[in-house]
Request: fold
Amino acid sequence: MAKKEFEYIDAIEPYEVFQSEPCPKDSDNCRSHTQICRQNKPQMVYDYMDDAPELVGECPYVEVQFKNTRKGYYLNSEGLDLHKGDIVAVEGNPGHDIGEVTLTGYLVHLQMKKSNFHFDSPDAQKKVFRHARENDMQRYYEAKAREHETMLRSRQIAEGLGLEMKIGDVEFQGDGQKAIFYYIADGRVDFRQLIKDLAAAFKIRIEMKQIGARQEAGRIGGIGPCGHELCCAKWQTRFQSVGTAAARFQDLSLNPQKLAGQCAKLKCCLNYEVDCYMEAANEIPAKDIVLYTLGGEWHLFKVDTLARKCTYSSGRDGGFNLVTITAQRAFDVYHQNKRGEKPERLDIEEGAVTNSPEFTDGVGDEALNRFDKSKKKKKRANKNRNNDSKPQDNQGNAPIGNGANDGDGDPDDERMPKPRGRN
Reply:
């Protein structure tokens, strides 16, 4: 059996099959006519235990991912040979749904614990029916083709009812019998009449799910200011509250335009390094501590938290005679003051030599216009070189001919402009 060829790309529609690159799976295990090949699927967990087949049977559940970030855990009661990337038909409510297996084995159990999965809930009894067949995939693609048109039509219906809500996305079930409408609203919305109108318009079962601004950004996707794909679209599933205190700990400017993400909320990445800053802040003297030397008193002016450096000023209300020292040196001076001693200098004595490496950044070193000045200088040098190469007479005057007025009646004299103010 010859291998089918597929292309693995990141597209807006996550379930597309292209034929260009060879499928990395075995020809015996690759169900090419039903496989949805796509690498870097949003929020796909890396299976670092994939090379341990003896642990596959440790968990009877498999993780199945659907459109965008929606996932579910299904019981493999039939004992099917499932692998990451297989397209399966799972139990729906009602009917069945089509999704991709994204995780198997022992890691599924860990993911279920992480997501607070309840084993006594009705969702815990949902099963994997079979590998997706050709007719299943045909119905699946027909249902997916209706999503965009359904979303636009549902927005018109909601606007006609005067509801203060925004329908951000529509997801059809694999068999087309049910659709999930994801909406955003600031307050509580009575959409009972909306469900009736939607069911009458599309002849399907309707389910409404309210999501927040962060979840909407994750479903839409995009590129962040760091140049990478949005965390909420790539891997993040839990959204912790983010406050301006995280920006203050990191000495960031409280500019809403820079701190807000594409969801118009504070960026989730503000919480990534705040613990490191809080830990480093414990190794820096408090702001109200005043250091005393023989030259006077010194007040804390600014702090470089990660570098553990403090800048002190001789004035209380401004930056006067600024001196930058390490946090360890500041503590040493503070302990000397507690013993009643005052050092001669705040910084380290002149005889001391420190070889601590300095942090430097390369901002501006690779600027796009770094070659512009050299080009201008080169043009000037070429121009001066051309002027020097022109022939001159013995007295250093302009060369004769080619428009030079030598006064001998040569035709070249007639081409020269006559001086103004003379007859």
About this structure: Residues 33 and 198 are 34 Å apart (CA to CA). The chain has a mean pLDDT of 77.
